[in-house]
Amino acid sequence: MARDGRKGWEAVPTRDLGSYSEPPSARRSGFAACCCSCLPGCALVSGLLFLVFGVLVVIYMQAHVDAYINKLLAFSEDSPTYHAWKEPPVAIKTKLYFFNLTNKEEFLAGTAKPRLQEVGPYVLGEKWDRKNVTFHPNGTLSSQLAKTLYLIEEESVGPETDLITTLNVPMISAAAKVRYEKDTMRQTTSGLLEVLEEYPIIVRSVHELVFGYPDPLVKLAKNVQPPGQSLPYESFGYFVGSVSVVVVLSVSVLKTPSAGPPMLINTGQSDFPQDRRHRAVRWLAAAAPSGTRASANMINGSDGTVYPPGANESTIVYLFARDICTQHGAPL
Ligand SMILES: *[C@@H]1O[C@H](CO)[C@@H](O)[C@H](O)[C@H]1NC(C)=O
Ligand SMILES: *[C@@H]1O[C@H](CO)[C@@H](O)[C@H](O)[C@H]1NC(C)=O
Ligand SMILES: *[C@@H]1O[C@H](CO)[C@@H](O)[C@H](O)[C@H]1NC(C)=O
Ligand SMILES: *[C@@H]1O[C@H](CO)[C@@H](O)[C@H](O)[C@H]1NC(C)=O
Ligand SMILES: *[C@@H]1O[C@H](CO)[C@@H](O)[C@H](O)[C@H]1NC(C)=O
Known about the structure:
It is found in: Cell membrane; Membrane, Caveola. It is a multi-pass membrane protein. This protein is an alpha+beta fold. Among the domains are: 47-78; 89-165 and 203-245, no CATH class; 262-331, no CATH class. It has helices at 7-11, 27-33, 39-73, 80-86, 104-109, 169-177, 183-195, 206-211, 216-224, and strands at residues 92-101, 116-136, 140-151, 163-167, 201-205, 213-214, 235-236, 245-248, 263-266, 280-283, 316-321, 326-331. The chain is elongated. It binds 2-acetamido-2-deoxy-beta-D-glucopyranose (NAG) (5 copies).
């Protein structure tokens, strides 16, 4: 069906595809003309196009997506993360177990090994209340944390008036401290402990052990120790010293919680390196308790409720706990 003398006609494919063999030069023009007949090629090319497009999106859009996520994660009045941080939606609970000495008399008489019975859990609930939250223009935020502790009686084995027979920690600490001192020093300490009526074993309620009871030795230590080493408290208890802690008895609220020292954290709004976002910067006022290890003043992480964006399974998340004066790193 090709006309004589006109090459163009020769290139036009005939309907009779079965017998017609296309010259290579004709394939390109034929492609558009009969797309239906070369569907696989069409799909391949468009697939490749989409692939290239996808790769470009990943390369160029990832930055935008990251920026958007980071914007949501940064603390601002309208970011969901900020509200979750301000009023943590999860209840924080601490389970306490005590070792109750059940053969006090025999043990003190030296006729038997101590027989200890584990009692617990006594479940402490923590209510976190962030006060004085102030955004600063340089991408930081200061706030104070007020913690309220209360015993969740229905989840505990007993009321906080349960009596526990246990070691007298202040007395044993004092005795341990002078263990290798000169005889005179040891005798003086021993006499002092007797005068103060300190015994190695005490019977105290769960409430007293947790939230503190006045101890003459601790009070004395507070007054005689050189400044810098002195204890800031007059009572002993395992949770005494977390300054912001205030006891709420299950029966009546004693007083409203006082807030801890103000702390400055990065909001994530500024261009901090990724891993510095949401990190605590420092205490604004009274620093960590004095006379403690160097790591006590290293606030190198968050309080555990937030961590920098972009974390994965191998990321070590640093958090510090003021109550135990230290920071910890743990994998996510
Ligand atoms: C602890 O042991 C004493 C006896 O040594 C007992 O009277 C007391 O009930 C025990 N406390 C608890 C909580 O079981
Ligand atoms: C908030 O800060 C002000 C001064 O900066 C202070 O007087 C006030 O006691 C703080 N509020 C709380 C609840 O700590
Ligand atoms: C950011 O502002 C706060 C409050 O004004 C200030 O205490 C802090 O030092 C500032 N941080 C930097 C890095 O400038
Ligand atoms: C914070 O933690 C990192 C990682 O272990 C450590 O290299 C750095 O010295 C720490 N800085 C402070 C101030 O604690
Ligand atoms: C986890 O994130 C760090 C950067 O924060 C990166 O170097 C590392 O390759 C990531 N690991 C995995 C398994 O994605």
